[in-house]
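ugh ok fine here u go
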Amino acid sequence: MNKEQILLVLETLSQKLTESEKEKVELIVAGSAPLILQDEISRTSTHDVDALPIEVTHSIRKEIEAVASDPVLKEQGIQLGVNWLNGSIAMFLRPDYALQFSKTGNIVIDTDHLKIISLTKEQILVTKLLSDRERDWSDAEYIIQNSENFDKLKQDIEEIIEILKEEEQVEVRSMFEQLSKC
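structure:
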C-alpha cells in the first residue's frame, strides 16, 4: 500500500466500524505505514499496518476482515490479506510504552468510531532499533542518515529511551550508534 492507499484503507475501516455501530476504537500505529504517511522513509509502500489498541473493549476482527474483502478497495487495485492490520509491533513495543508514546503521537484519523495515533518518527526509530530485525535496519538507517538535525534526533532518542528497561536502553543506544556511523 502506498500513502494514499493506507489512508483509504484506514478510512474504510472507520466506515466499517460506523456501520457496525461499535464503540470508538483507538489504535496506535507504528512500523513502516506511519513513516510512509509522514514521508520519512525511502520506500513508498508496505503490505500491512502495525497497530496496538490503546484500550481493548471489543474485537474489531470482523471489520478488519471486511476491509480486506471490500470490493471498492479491490476495484482500486488494493489487495489486502486478512492480517493487513496486525499487532506484530507488540513483539517490541510493550503496551505501557505504547500508551506513553501515544500521548505525543500524531493523529492520523479521528472519527466517531476510530482514532488512529501514529508514533512519531523518533518513537518508530526506537521500535525499529528494538526489533533487532535486519529488515528494519534499512528504515532506521534512512531515518538517521536523513535527519535534518542529527543532534536533535539523538537528544529526542535519549528522551524516549529513558522509559525503557536498562537492557533495552543499552541495545537501542548501541544500534543507534552503529547505524549513525554508516
